[in-house]
Each structure stands twice: as structure tokens, then as C-alpha cells.
Specification:
The complex is a heterotrimer.
Chain A lengths: L5 E4 L3 E5 L4 E5 L4 E5 L1 H7 L7 H8 L4 H13 L3 E4 L20 E5 L3 H16 L3 E5 L6 H11 L6 E6 L7 H7 L3 E6 L4 H6 L6 E3 L22 H9 L7 E4 L4 E3 L9 E2 L5 H7 L1 H4 L43 E2 L4 E2 L8
Parallel strand pairs in A: 6-7, 6-11, 7-8, 8-9, 9-10
Antiparallel strand pairs in A: 1-5, 2-3, 3-4, 11-12, 12-13, 14-15
Chain B lengths: L1 E5 L5 H12 L4 E5 H7 L1 E3 L2 E3 L10 E4 L13 H33 L4 E2 L10 H10 L7 E6 H9 L4 E4 L7 E4 L4 E6 L3 E3 L1 H7 L3 E9 L3 E10 L2 E8 L20 E5 L3 H13 L4 E9 L4 E7 L5 H7 L3 H16 L1
Parallel strand pairs in B: 1-2, 1-5, 5-6
Antiparallel strand pairs in B: 3-4, 7-12, 8-11, 8-12, 9-10, 13-14, 13-16, 14-15, 16-17
Helix pairs in contact in B: 1-9, 4-7, 5-6
Chain C lengths: L10 H9 L11 E6 L10 E4 L4 E5 L16
Chain lengths: ~350, ~325, ~80
């Protein structure tokens, strides 16, 4: 290792410091690595020192250890050596979208058929890209097919279905004909259904029945996403509620189904109208970042997890999500999760 | 009105630019080449096609033309039955027909502001290398020859040389079973002077050979409106991507990170684009282990999503803004 | 429905090799890659028509983050 070089983290390997632990988020390869605080300092605080100068700073007796650690980082391809530090800038962490609303949760209800045209116009107008469509009761194949066909007129690129039943014989045919459906959560499932769909990555089967919106808000390692979009969005916006809107079963329009306040009802107004007239209420939660939330602000996972403002530890709008049992002060996931399993 | 000339399939970048144009309340029309060929009429010298009005157009983003080749799996056997010679004649005839119609459209839009004028969409690599040299950019030494002796002499001057197409790399595929397709991969190949002596026949078709530049890393630059957006690609560490980074390693993709060209190199790149008359384009450069920056080529209608996303440059938004601003200027 | 015309395995490479002398040197020693054209329906990243963009086929994609965080309460 040429010690007159600088050691540079690749711009898409971004260190995030928590109270106890530090991780490097590899947003290109969608993974993260835990590193120790000293290594973090070398990479961040001393990023404008050559390797030679770093060794001098810590003392010659640490040379082997330091070179060893840097060698490991090189093997994992988290860093590169260069003499031209200044030509490798950090990643710009600005998040921008052309959409007014990026994602929606729609709980199907009686209102839907009547208001379908207006809803579709809203979806196009607001530039919605991702949709979670929930059914709390059984749906017929006709109804589902009609809805999916209507959604084809919009800019939505990914549809997540939450179903109580799967109303088609041929799942392969359904998936091929409805490519925008990227995932199906089939709840209230029988053993037979569990068996039938077990090899499909796009289908998750659970035996429990989802009856309402209380079953949301869990934060766990499985739902961490390490990517540029979430990482940058988390810097300045709420990683769950930003540019999200939902319509619940009775037609009420809310930020998300689990938040009590309704902004209006789809039977009396449109999403665009709500956005235009009640902009402040609509985006009330949008700018609450993890860096402002109690406990989360000290957590190394704060830019790869998605927040929850609906279920909080207290009334304080900046309090920690209720359903997260990670303690960033000791780096442990606690056993008994408050709220649910 | 802004005109987007694109193709109807697999053009997500066009969709994204349209999203930004919508956000900016841009006045635009998307024309897909295949739709024009299938549905437009030319009556008394006027183009009649849905709501397309060539008079109203001010600025044109010349992005793509058509998704479909002339031969698909439905008609391939008939072309085979015709035989190679007659197929070639038929294809040439169809291409000429298509070409004339397409250039009629271009002539109707001749006075408009084009991001890339039609005659410039296919870059002449050799001409561009010479223009780059005149702008003080380092370029790899090259020879185009069919003479083994001359090639040998050239090879001896360099540690290694590479052979690549003078224009685009052709793509070949063949269905060998119901679900299996064979594709022929032609990657850039590397030779030493000895290998030239021992492995190359005495006669071969004229080919382009270049000095192989030993890479520290590669650079992809997106040039738009006198601004360079650069990205460094670390393909050196991976044997699979060492010579040709398009031999993608999907398991562990090459590191792609934002990069700032040294001032002088960036100035020369801009000089090149102005001299060669490109408003927009994707340039390939190499930072060599010898410390120099080598210009390889420019693709005026190149992909920029692969620079935009990893570096978070949001080039789609910048391009939309550029089109809106150019449109305002014309008015 | 018309069936696809099938070719002999290796014929593509063989033909190019026969023509080698008349081709530029970058055609020399081509590699063959075999790919399955079979659609793995459960994993396939889909394409759909997007009339809103005047596009016959554009990519579908999953969201970069979970839209919701559904979980199950044990009875």
C-alpha cells in the first residue's frame, strides 16, 4: 500500500454514526458494514491526510493495525487509494422528485367505484408512482381486474396488493398480465395457499387476517433498505410519510391509514383539491426527519429504516416509533417489542 | 412546443424527462419513430399525424427513433428462404424507404433548435479523435489497417494494443431451443506484439487498433449545455471488466462515483464539444496509470441514466429545464 | 401461433468463424453466451404499456422503501 496516497471512501459508501455503533452504508450494493469508531475517524475526520500522515497522527506503533484495517476495507471495495483526493467529491444528498405525491395507500371501499374516474385523474395529476391497494374483505376477480386496468392509465410503476383472497386460478397468468403488480400480501391464507405460493418471491402468504390499519408501523432489520433514494430522502424528509397520502375504507383522506386525523373525504372532494386547499395539514409530517426524532437521532440505522409517526411512544410528535425495539445506546435489539410481535 | 423524438419501447429516461416537463408545466409532444412510420401520412407535402403539428415545434430533443428491427421472429424464416443476397437487397430497400421518410420529417423541422442535429447522431470516431487532439486532449494512438506487417510495427511500439469496431459493436443472437438464446459476444480484445505475430492471419479485413491504455479508472462524462457531469468507473479491479467494462459483473457491480475532471481536461472537453458541434453527449475517457486523461469517444445520443442515478445528478431534471429554457429563448 | 425459427447450437459462432478472413479482427474468437429466455414469473421485473407516456413498453419497478410496515398481532 503506497502510503503517500489518500484513502478515500467511495462516494456511495457513506458512514453513519450512532451513539454506540458506526455503520458504512453501501448504497450501491444495498448492504451495510459495521466499523469501529477509530476507523470511522480515520476515514472521516482524517480524510485529508495521507496514510503516512494518519500513521504519524496515531503513532508508529499502530502502523500494522491501521494498514491491516485499511487493507480490509480495500478488499471489501469500500475505499480506494488516490493522490487526487479533491477530484472525488462526496455524493450530493439532495432528494428531488417530479411527483407531488410519490406513494399512496388505498383501502378499497364502497366509494371506489363511484369515484374511480376522479381518483385516477388525481393519481395522474399528482404523479403517484407507487400504490399499495388494500382489501379487508374478499374481492372478485372482475373487480380486481377492472381496477388494475384503470390503474394502467396512470404513472404508477409498482402496485402492492394486500388481499384476503386470491381470486384467480392461474397465478402465473395473473402475474404476466399484470406486470405492474410487484408484490402480493395474501393474508387470512389457508395451508393450501401457503404451499401453493411458497416459491413465488412476489407473493407473501400469512395466516393472520388483517382487519384494519392497526397492523402497521413495525420497524425491524428485515425492512431496512440501503439505497440512494431512501438514504437521500431520509436526510431532509420523513422516510415514511413524505409525499404519501391515503384513502381509507370509508373514503376519508389521510396521510396514512393509521393516523387518526382525516383531511377530508373522497366523496366530497378530490386529492388534488385537498392538496391545494390544505397544503399545510397535508404536509404536516413530511419534514420530520430521523435527525429530529428522539432516540432515532442517535441511531446508526436512521437513514435505512423507515419511520413511523402514527404509532409513537408518546404524544410528542418527535418521539420514537412505538414498534421499534432497537436501542442505539447499547446497540441491542430488545426482546419484548412494545405493541406487537 | 418541445418535440421529443423517441422510441416507444424501453425508454424510461424519456418518461422521466416527461415527468419533469409536467412539473415545469412544459408544453411538449412525444413522437415515437415507429408511430410515425406506422401512422403518419404525407399529403401535399404536409405531414398529417394525429395532433402533431410541425409548425408549432420550437425545440427538439433528438433522443431515439425506433424500437423494432425489420426482422423479427415472425418473419425471419421468410428472409432465410430469400437467402442472404436477396434479404440484403430487401432490407436495404426497406431501410432506404424508411430513411427517406424519416429525413422528410427532419427537413420539415430543419429550422428548429435541435439538441443533436440528425446528421450528427452517428458520430465518426476517427474524425472525433482528430478533433479531440486539436483541442489538446490526449488520445490513444491508433492505426486502421489490413496489413499484418504494418500492424506488427504498430504493436511493437506499445505494450498492448486493442482491436475494436470503428463504429458500433454489432449484436448477434440465435434461438437454439424454445427457451434458449445464444448470443455472440464481441468484446474489445487485447493483444501483445507477440500475439499479433503468432495468432493473427496474414490477411484480414481493415480493422481499427488502438494503443491499450492501462487504466486507473474510466470516466463517463455527460455533457449538456456547456457543463460536464462526470462519473468515475472503477473497472480495473475486476478481471471480468478490466478490458471492457460492459462485460458487466452483476454480482459485484463496478464502483461508479461522482468525479470532477481536472480543470484543464474539462476545459478541453468543452472545447471539443463546441468544435465538434455537440450540445449534448456522453463521452468516454480513461484516467491512465501514466497520469494522463485519454479521450476515447463521444456518443451524442448516449444513455445518461447510468451517470445520473449513481451520482445523483438528476440529469433528467436538468435536461427538462434545458428544453424549457431553450423553448423560452426561441419565443 | 407461429413457432420461432430455431437454429443449430453453435451455428452462430461457426458461421462467424468461417467468415473470419473477411471480417475485421474484433470478430476473432467470439464468445458464446447462452441465456434462458424463459420468464421467471415470480421474479420477473415487468414491463407494461404506459399510455400516459405514449409508451408501448416501459419498466415496472418496486418501491425503494416499504410503503407500509404491516405486521401481525398474535392472538
Amino acid at each position: 500500500m503506497n502510503k503517500s496516497n489518500y484513502i478515500r471512501l467511495f462516494a456511495n459508501c457513506i458512514p453513519v454514526k450512532g451513539a454506540k455503533n458506526v455503520i458504512v452504508c453501501d448504497i450501491q450494493r444495498s448492504t451495510y458494514f459495521e466499523i469501529d469508531m477509530v476507523l470511522h475517524d480515520i476515514l472521516v475526520a482524517h480524510s485529508n491526510k495521507t496514510i503516512e500522515e494518519i500513521i504519524e497522527f496515531y503513532g508508529k506503533e499502530y502502523e500494522d493495525e491501521i494498514l491491516n484495517q485499511l487493507d480490509q476495507l480495500q478488499k471489501e471495495e469500500l475505499v480506494h487509494l488516490t493522490t487526487e483526493n479533491h477530484l472525488f467529491p462526496k455524493l450530493d444528498l439532495t432528494w428531488e422528485t417530479p411527483s407531488v405525491i410519490t406513494n399512496m395507500i388505498i383501502e378499497h371501499g364502497d366509494y371506489f367505484q363511484e369515484k374511480e374516474t376522479e381518483i385516477v385523474n388525481d393519481l395522474i395529476e399528482l404523479g403517484v408512482q407507487y400504490l399499495e391497494l388494500r382489501f379487508y374483505v374478499d374481492v372478485s376477480n372482475e373487480t380486481l381486474q377492472n381496477i388494475l386496468q384503470t390503474i394502467q392509465k396512470t404513472k404508477i410503476v409498482g402496485i402492492y396488493l394486500v388481499l384476503q383472497n386470491f381470486p384467480y386460478e392461474d397465478i402465473d397468468k395473473f402475474l404476466i398480465e399484470n406486470q405492474r403488480v410487484v408484490n402480493i400480501l395474501l393474508s387470512n391464507a389457508t395451508d393450501a395457499e401457503d404451499e401453493r405460493y411458497k416459491d413465488y418471491n412476489k407473493i407473501s402468504v400469512v395466516k393472520h387476517k388483517i382487519v384494519n390499519n392497526k397492523n402497521c408501523g413495525i420497524i425491524c432489520q428485515n425492512s431496512f433498505q440501503v439505497n440512494l433514494d431512501l438514504f437521500t430522502e431520509s436526510q431532509q424528509f420523513n422516510s415514511c410519510l413524505n409525499k404519501k397520502l391515503s384513502i381509507i375504507e370509508n373514503g376519508d383522506i389521510k396521510n396514512c391509514p393509521s393516523i387518526p386525523e382525516a383531511l377530508g373525504n373522497i366523496k366530497e372532494t378530490t386529492l388534488t383539491e385537498i392538496f391545494d386547499s390544505k397544503e399545510e395539514d397535508v404536509n404536516k409530517y413530511w419534514n420530520i426527519t430521523k435527525d429530529q426524532i428522539e432516540v432515532c437521532k442517535d441511531c446508526e440505522f436512521r437513514y435505512i429504516c423507515t419511520d413511523c409517526r402514527a404509532f409513537r411512544e408518546s404524544d410528542n410528535i418527535y418521539s420514537k416509533p412505538l414498534k421499534c425495539n432497537y436501542n442505539p445506546y447499547n446497540g441491542k435489539w430488545e426482546d419484548n417489542l412494545r405493541g406487537s410481535k | 412546443m418541445i418535440l421529443i423524438i423517441s422510441k416507444s419501447e424501453m425508454e424510461d429516461t424519456t418518461n422521466q424527462v416527461m415527468d419533469w416537463l409536467d412539473t415545469f408545466n412544459g408544453d411538449y409532444y412525444r413522437l415515437n419513430g415507429e408511430d410515425f412510420m406506422n401512422k403518419a401520412d404525407i399529403i401535399n407535402g404536409q405531414i398529417q399525424f394525429e395532433s402533431f403539428n410541425s409548425e408549432a415545434i420550437t425545440v427538439i430533443w433528438n433522443r431515439r427513433w425506433s424500437s423494432r428491427g425489420l426482422i423479427n421472429f415472425e418473419n425471419e424464416e421468410y428472409y432465410d428462404a430469400l437467402g442472404a443476397k436477396n434479404s440484403s437487397t430487401l432490407l436495404r430497400s426497406l431501410r432506404q424507404e424508411n430513411g427517406i421518410l424519416r429525413s422528410f420529417l427532419h427537413s420539415k423541422l430543419n429550422s428548429k433548435v435541435w439538441t443533436t442535429r440528425p446528421e450528427k447522431t452517428s458520430a465518426n470516431k476517427i474524425k472525433n479523435l482528430e478533433i479531440a487532439k486539436s483541442c489538446n486532449l490526449s488520445v490513444p494512438e491508433y492505426i486502421i489497417t489490413s496489413n499484418k506487417y504494418k500492424l506488427s510495427q504498430f504493436a511493437k511500439k506499445h505494450e498492448r494494443i486493442i482491436c475494436k469496431p470503428i463504429s458500433e459493436t454489432p449484436f448477434f443472437s440465435s434461438s437454439i431451443d424454445n427457451d434458449i438464446v445464444e448470443t455472440l459476444i464481441l468484446y474489445t480484445k487485447s493483444f501483445t506484439a507477440n500475439q499479433i505475430e503468432e495468432e493473427i492471419e496474414d490477411t484480414f479485413f481493415k480493422s481499427l487498433f488502438q494503443q491499450q491504455i492501462i487504466k486507473e479508472f474510466e470516466i463517463r462524462v455527460f455533457y449538456l449545455n456547456d457543463t460536464c457531469y462526470s462519473m468515475a468507473i472503477f473497472s480495473q479491479n475486476d478481471k471480468q471488466t478490466q478490458v471492457d467494462f460492459r462485460n458487466y459483473n452483476d454480482a459485484k457491480p463496478n464502483r461508479t462515483v461522482p468525479f470532477i475532471l481536472p480543470k484543464e481536461v474539462e476545459e478541453n472537453v468543452k472545447k471539443f464539444c463546441r468544435k465538434a458541434e455537440y450540445n449534448i453527449g456522453s463521452l468516454d475517457l480513461i484516467k491512465s496509470t501514466d497520469g494522463k486523461y485519454y479521450f476515447l469517444e463521444i456518443n451524442p445520443v448516449g444513455q445518461f441514466g447510468m451517470v445520473s442515478y449513481p451520482c445523483n445528478y438528476n440529469l433528467e431534471k436538468k435536461l427538462a429545464k434545458y428544453l424549457i429554457d431553450e423553448n423560452k429563448k426561441v419565443k | 401461433m407461429k413457432t420461432k425459427k430455431l437454429n443449430k447450437k453453435g451455428a452462430l459462432k461457426e458461421s462467424i468463424e468461417h467468415l473470419e478472413n473477411q471480417l475485421p479482427l474484433f470478430f476473432k474468437n467470439p464468445e458464446i453466451k447462452e441465456q434462458s429466455a424463459k420468464i421467471d414469473v415470480s421474479n420477473f421485473l415487468g414491463l407494461d404499456e404506459f399510455p400516459v407516456y405514449n409508451s408501448k413498453r416501459s419498466a415496472c419497478r418496486p418501491c425503494y422503501k416499504p410503503i407500509s410496515k404491516i405486521h401481525f398481532i398474535n392472538e
